[in-house]
Every structure is written in structure tokens, then in C-alpha cells.
Amino acid sequence: MSILSLLIPVTLVMGLVGLASFFWSLRNGQYEDLEGDAERILYDEDDRPLPSRTYKSPKEPTP
Amino acid sequence: MTLVDGDAAEQLMSPLQQGAARRSLRTARDGGAICLLSVPDIRCGGCVSKIERALNARDDVASARVNLSLKRVQITPSGSRADPALFIAALDRLGFAASAADDATATPDPTGNGLLRATAVAGFGAMNIMLLSVAVWSGALGTTRDAFHLLSAMIAVPVVLYAGQPFFSSAWSALRVRRVNMDVPITLAVLLATVLSLAELLQGGEQLFFDAAVTLLFFLLGGRYLDQMMRERASSAINGLARLAPSGAMVRRPDGALAYVELEEVKPGDRLVVSAGEYVPVDAQVSEGSTDLDRSLITGEPLPVLASPGDMIEAGTLNLTGSVEAVALRPAAESFLAQMIRMQSEAERNRGTYERIANRAARLYAPVVHLMALLTFLSWLWTTDGDWQQALFVAISVLIITCPCALGLAVPVAHVVAAGRLMRMGVLMKDGAGIERLANIDAAVFDKTGTLTTGRPRLEPVIADVADLSAARGLAIRSSHPAAKAIAADLVAEPAAVVEQVQEVPGYGIEGRIDGRRARLGRGDWVAEIAGEPASSPTDPAFAFAGGAPIGFEVTETLRDGVHDTFDAFSRGGLDLVILSGDSRERVMHLSHDLVLTDICAGMKPADKVSYLENMRHEGRRPLMVGDGLNDAGALAAAHVSMAPSSASDAGRTAADFVFLRKGLDAVAATHRVACRTAAVVRQNFTLAICYNCIAIPLAVAGLVTPLIAALAMSASSILVIGNSLRLSASPEKLRHGTRRRRLKKAAT
């Protein structure tokens, strides 16, 4: 049972670290635009196709 | 690039709008300037990336970031001389109307973040204490148990002291004015549970309620945070709606130059210049020029009136056709607009405080529970021959188990779910009290202009030559008068003729030359001056070539979509239906001939509307008021509950409990249906919570409650109530998502 004296403090410290990082993210404005962040990920800022892609994008006009 | 933009800004924006754009500049935390713009048309990630890409590519922007939830753009300009008007012009070219963001919404509400922090702390405490408690329940003994109890106490005491503050302060402020709200029994239970457990801990007892106290706080804080979020979202959405009037005025200085002046700084005697398309800033008297004024938001008259030198113009009227100079008569604080707002706050005061259903429940619940705990204490004292410790323990466990966790969640969770549902339907709800009141209305009162009608008149069919009609359309498209707009829009089949030497005569109409012939479109008697014969009616619009026969146009108001559905639904539900209008009786009768109504009042002044609604309330009625104008703001505040369309005046939107963004009036009936279903769910939640108490209280009084039973029973009842409330969001009605989906598609391509 003596392992408990190690494990319980570890649990508490992990919990406190989580709580502290939540406070940090809250103060940093991470929760100010939840909707926007959810939608932002759908739109790539980078318009060029990745180099590994070799097929032609359907949007390009065919000559 | 900047040069082109400067031109664009001048083309798109009047000096007044450019002046008002400067209000968007604010000082950032680091001392630099930031520009906050409110852009209500941002709908999706597509709009976000479009705007950010366009703005970030500009030379005068260091960084631009869109907030989709608040529909706002924050721009950090590069260089010190940034002109927000250029940003607004750039957004306008992308198809987004932008305006300076309101001060009220510029800083986020600290309460929301405070609640979120308290919820996180309570969650941390609840998880860790529960972990230790499960070990105790499953049979930890001796020193292990005592150590776990000590650890629980060390976590629980700071957590309760920090996370319980919202409840403690609310309960304290209620007790100070000798009232009881739901937070009083909650505070009592949490504090007693903590104190009792500490006392037990010191005596090495077995029964500790730390887990119950902290889990309770966690559940209740979660509910309270959601409630707060709902209100914040609705108010930011309402504040984000495009403002009708820029809050400022163009003043002509003695040296003849024009300058932008903040609204509060306009003094009586200042010479104001009001251009076409602008709102009159303060009450004034026209000194030069004449124009047509749209007073529909002020008086409810749908058709414009003429203002010429010597006429009074009220703040809030829209100048349609010509530019006028006027002398300010009163400062902004005494203008018509301010009077309306005063009337509104007065009506709000007279409305009396509506007691929320949760507080009514608490007023019944708290004394019963506290009395029961006292009786338990006394009877245990009597039966155990004065074992006061045992009696006190049982009495406190009664208070803990009856802590209204489910009762505390019964109302806010249902309201949050209903608000989310309404928001998807395009209806914004300001706070939960509104939806409680809407569920028990017994009459519905409607304004006419702008509420029942669309604000855009329609042209009745005309029979005439194609040449005449196309000439009439050619003139009509040059004017911004609503009747001319209706003619231009409804004669769309005719090609517009080429018109030269166009001249608009405010109050009369528009004149020009078509193929060398003089032609007029406007008031019948004015057109008849050049026509060969009199027009069919001297006031209705007509068109004629010089010496030709005049063609009369009949322009009528159109009802909004869904007016009949709403009236049918309300009259089936046994509600009285009333129209209150500032317009003339004939026009109201003409419009409402096929509607079933209890009462029609025409020619009502703003004060008449307020007293009509106050009379209704004195008779014990509970009227719903639906209105949009500045003249309705007082009536909206005086009614039991009120709704306004998003096209309403700023004052109307502030006064109303609900704002609907949809074009059709069917939103009113749909909101009423949701309100009734919400009220039913709240009643079910109360029944569930009372059933729980019926089982739990006898157990507690008998002294059979252990911490394990308390934790299980309280969590189970809360989850039951939350689950029942979530049923509200399952919608039996099909919602119209078409427009949004199309926009998304457009934005994605």
C-alpha cells in the first residue's frame, strides 16, 4: 500500500497541472471564439496543392 | 493601392460614415491602436478566411483577426495613421457591411470567465475527492481511511471556498433584503456539509460528505455557466446587428467647412447637413432645401412625407431623396429619440418585477425543507434521549440530501437548450425570464408598419402602353422614394428608358426628358400640371409625358410572409389579437380586412400605445407585443413580453425580449410554440425533482443516508433533469437551412 503515498501526490499534481493549463489558456483568449476555431480548420490558408499530389485538380481549366 | 482605396472609400461612404468609422479605433493593452469592426454578415469559416486574407494582404494592416462567435473583426493597423474608413470600404467591396463596434460589447463580460474558472476548480475537486471516496466506500479501513479523509478535506475546503462564491454572494444579497432564493438552501447545504464533515473528521468519524458538497457545486456551476453563456451570446448577437444610424452628425462650421461631430456634442443652433440616405441626428428645423422623409419608424406612416424650410424634423427619421440643412433645436439628450428611450425605461419600471419561476419554487421549498430538518432534529433528540450529536448529524444530512441540485438545474438547463433551439430558428432570446413569460400570454398585440408589413410597398397591376411603362420605369429607377422603388421593381418586365436631365423634386416626384419629351413620375396633381388631363387621384403616384394621358399607379403595402399562419395559430390558441398603429384607420383596415382581430386601434401616438398595454396589464391580461419602430419602444417595454424583427430601430431591439432575424412573421408563432414546450419541460423537471425528494427525504429523516447514497442520489437526479431538458432540442419541425447552406457553398467555391 505504500505505493499510494507516491501515486496520490502524482494524481493531484497531474490534476493541478491540468487546472493551471486551463487557467492559462483561458487568460490567453483561447475560448473567445470557439465557433470560429471550429470552422477555421476546414479552410486551408495554403491554396497551392501539396507537392506529393500528382493528379490534376478538377478545378484547373482543361486546355 | 492606397490611392485607389481612398477613392473607393469616398465613393462608398459619405463624410458622416467616414467620421463615424473613427469610433472603431481603440487603444490596445500595449498602447498601440486597434480597430474593432462589427460585421454581422460573417456566417462561416469561408467568410472568415476571405476577410482575413483580403485584410492581411493590405499594406496598412499589420494583422487582422475575425471572431466568428462575436461576428467582429479586430485589425491592428501598421503605421500610426490608419483610417478605419478604408477597412470598412474594403470589407464592403467583399460584400460585408461593417460598422464601428459598440463599446458595450468591446470588452468581454468578466462574470462568464469567473464562472468558468469556478466550474473548473469544482471539477478538479470533484474528480479527486470522488477518487478518494470510492476507495473509502469500497472498504478502506484504519489509517488509510483517515488519511484519505484528511486528504479529501484538504482539497474540499479551498475548493468550496473558491467555487462556492457565486452562490454565497447571491444567497447573502437575497437574505439581506429578507428574501429567499434558490441559492439560500444551496449555500446552506454546501456549507453545512463541509462543516459537518470537518467536525466528523476531527472525531475520526466515518461519514464524510466532502464529495457530495463538491460534486453539487460542480453540477450547479455547470448549469449556471451555460445560462450565462446563453445570455452573453444573445446580447452580443443583438448588439452585432447592423446599427441603423451612425451616432454622429455633419455640422457646417461658420467658415462653411463640414465637420463630423459626435452626437453628444451637437449643440442647439448648430447647422446640420443631412444628406440623402442618412438619419436625422437630433430634432431640428429645416433651414434650406427640401426632401422626403421616411418617418415609418417614428410614427408608423408607411409613405414618406415632405419636409421643406421651416418644418420640424425629428431625430431618427430617414432622409430619402434630397440633402437639407437644418438648425439643431435640442441636444441629443432631449431629442425625440431620447424621449422615447425615457418612456421605455419608465414603462419598464412600471411593469414591476416578474418573479422567476425558480425563485417562486425556492420560496415554497426552502421553508418546508428547513422546517423538516428542525423537526428531524427535535424528534431524534427526543427518541435518543438527548444525543444531540446524533440528532444534529441526521438533521444536517436531511439538509444535504434536499439541497435543490435538480431544482437548481431544472430551469436553466431547459432554457439553455430552448435558447439554442431558437437561435437555430433565427430567434435571439435575451434571457430566460422572457421565455417563461411568453409561455403564458393571453393576447398578442401587433404594430402595423414594419412588423405586419414588409416596409416595401407593392405595385398593383397596371394596364398601359409598353412605351409609357418603360419610360415610367426609367424615371423610377433614378429615385430612392419607396413608391418609385416599388414601381421600378414590379415593372421589371419593361426595359428602362434612357432618361436625360433628371431632376428630383422632393415631395412631388421625379422629372426628366425621354426621347426629347418632358416626362414626370410623382404625385397625381403634380403630374397633371404637364399632362393633358387630370390623373385618377391627386395623391397616388402617376406618370405622364407632357401633353399625354396620365397613367395612375396604385401602390399598396405588402404583408410579411407568415402573418396569416401566425394569426391562425394564435386565434386557434384562444389569444386576443390586436393591431396598434400610428397610421391612418383606412390603411390599417385595408391591410387587415382578411385577418380575424379583436381590436384595431389606428392613429396611436407612442404614449397611447404604452397606456393601451398598461391598461391591459391592469386588467390582469398578459399581452405579447410585437413591434419594430422607435414609437413602439415604450410599448415593447410595457408589455408582458415582447418581440421585434431584426429590422427594428435600435431602441426597439433593445426593449424587446426576443429579436427574430427571419423575414417571415411565422417566427412569432414558432417561438411561442417553443416557449410552451419549454414551460412543459420545466414542469416535468420540477416533478422529477420533487419525486426524488419524496424518496430521499424519508430516508434522510430515518437516518439511513450514508455519503454513498447521497452522492448517487444527487448525481442521478441531476442527470435525469439534464436528460429531460435535452429533449427540447430534438425538433419535430423542419427548419429552413437553405439560405445558410447556399452561402456556405458560395463561400467554399
UniProtKB/TrEMBL annotation, chain A:
Region Disordered: start-end pairs: 42-63
Which branch of life, at top level?
Bacteria
PANTHER family membership? FIXS PROTEIN
The gene name on file is ccoS
Keywords for the protein's UniProt record, in alphabetical order? Membrane, Transmembrane, Transmembrane helix
Q: Which NCBIfam families match?
A: ccoS
Per its record, how is this protein called by name? Cbb3-type cytochrome oxidase assembly protein CcoS
Cite the InterPro entries for this sequence. Cyt_oxidase_maturation_cbb3
